[in-house]
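Quarterly update from the structural biology core.
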Amino acid sequence: MDRDMLWIEIMRDAALPQCKAERIRHRADTVFLLMMGGRVLAMQTGFAMLEAAYARPMNAANIMMKNMMDLFLGSIVFYFFGYWLAFGVQPLIFEETGFDFSLWFLHLSYATTSATIDSGALAGRVSFIAYLVLSVLLTGFIYPIVVYWAWGAGWLQELGYIDFAGSSLVHMVGAISALVSVCICGPRIGKYPDYRAWKGIWRVIFVERNNSEYYQLPELEIEKAVFTKIKPCNNPVQLLFGTFLLLVGFLGFNPASTLATTLNTDLLSARTTVTTLMAASGGAMASILWALIVRRHLIIKVPDLTNAVLGGLVSSCACCHVIPPVIMLFVGFVGALLTLSTCVLMERRQLDDTVGAVAAHGCPAAWGTLCVAIFAQPHCQSDLRGLVFGGGQAAWEQLGIQCIGLVAIAAFAAVSTYICVLGIDLIGGFRCNRACELIGLDFTEHDIDDGALRLEEKSMTLMTHSPVRDCLVERVKRNITMPTEDKINGEAVDVQTSGGDTPIPPEEYKTVSPDIDETEEKVAAAPPPALQAARTGMKASHSHTSQSQVDLEEEVKELRKAVQKMSHTITMLVHGRSADSENGQAVVGSNAGSRQGGRRAALDQLLQEAELM
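Predicted structure, tokenized:
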């Protein structure tokens, strides 16, 4: 008997009677799995920071929340359903049945990694609750089924399919799921000014409800006022730091798949650690070549570097245990080029993947899986021989098996995700409300507000007519400085802004809030109005309206006068808010000298003007 197996028998004999069923592996192996699983779970931090660096600041907290809930909800569903589907082991509820906690913990970290890929691709426009439902379905059902096929004695494992650390099972499943979700959800508003919505049969397949103008740059003044321009990357330093965290996580992700350090597997763990790092290095070199050949300069963009490194790491997962380090440099290099090429292709096809998750986890994963049959070299822990090293007929057969596995896994992930997303969209809506997307998911989904939004009349108008946020609107309206009227001519204004509806017609929005641009010249020539006068004007206008005796033309004229006064008031409040951002420095008012105190100074001036009126 091997010495390590003897130690396991000795530890099992020495264990308490109630613990013998759980003494499945060597103590060193148990500790190894727990430590590696913890490092892989730390990748959630890296993903969260990377995704938040790409997303607009008004959605950063929403991204962090999604990554946290991935872990917490994923833990529950994977304990009760996912692990049982993958390995046929029922969860412990009240009785001890020999549950392998360390192995469960490791596979949980793999499952949450696959689920969080959707978070990055859909950042900025998917409903928080809808995303959580998709994450639960992916962690608890979609991912475990493909794991059973290849790792849990399923048909792919019997066929001889090899995916050492989950290039296809973890990363490609997440990438295919993200791609299907992106096609159904559509791009962020304003991402592609010339966006063309799905046409013909594709419009039916992806259940497209909106026209092209819905996704293009906002044209209404009220939407322009709250719209934030989309940038390729909002925080490059945070993006680099998140990539560092992911690199450290991958250096635990791949070695952990040995599942042990005894029985000579410690040597295999060491080999996979080195080859993983070489793949990342090859990806970094590919970003330099990409800058020289494609961009025709030596300026290496931060997103190019980070995506290239991630592409190299993903391509290493399936084959890191059988490919020598020198060849792994090439594998990572090609994986990175596939990543960057896919990013360009998706941009041309106007598929809005916020962080490039589909590109980094899709094609590189398939490439790495095929490399098992192409570049495998025999060593002391493996007898597998690839085509390059004279594998012959066996290598060609292995390549065919790898192709069959890739097609089956991709097809299952695509179909199951398609059904899940359509079901979520049918029941409660998948994409967030249009007003919520324009204002920002931090505020609309999580009520994170620094006070600025409560002073924005345009933002409040959008929120007022957001049907899924009525309770939040009422809470905000109690704190807003200037209330927004919901009724014109005594009747409720029917303004729809939900994600599944058409854009708000310009004439309807002008009824709610007239075009400020039309009155800018009049405001500049008019004397400084006061806050109290603005409110009085609004009340007078609506009082005349309720009598239904005033001519429509006179009513419009009175309403525009009130808007002029409101415009000046908003301008003063914006001056005060800008001063706050400058740490209390002096503010120059429209008709006043320098004042200290930011918003307080602006309000004091308004009160003084009100007294003069």
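Residues 159 and 574 are 67 Å apart (CA to CA).
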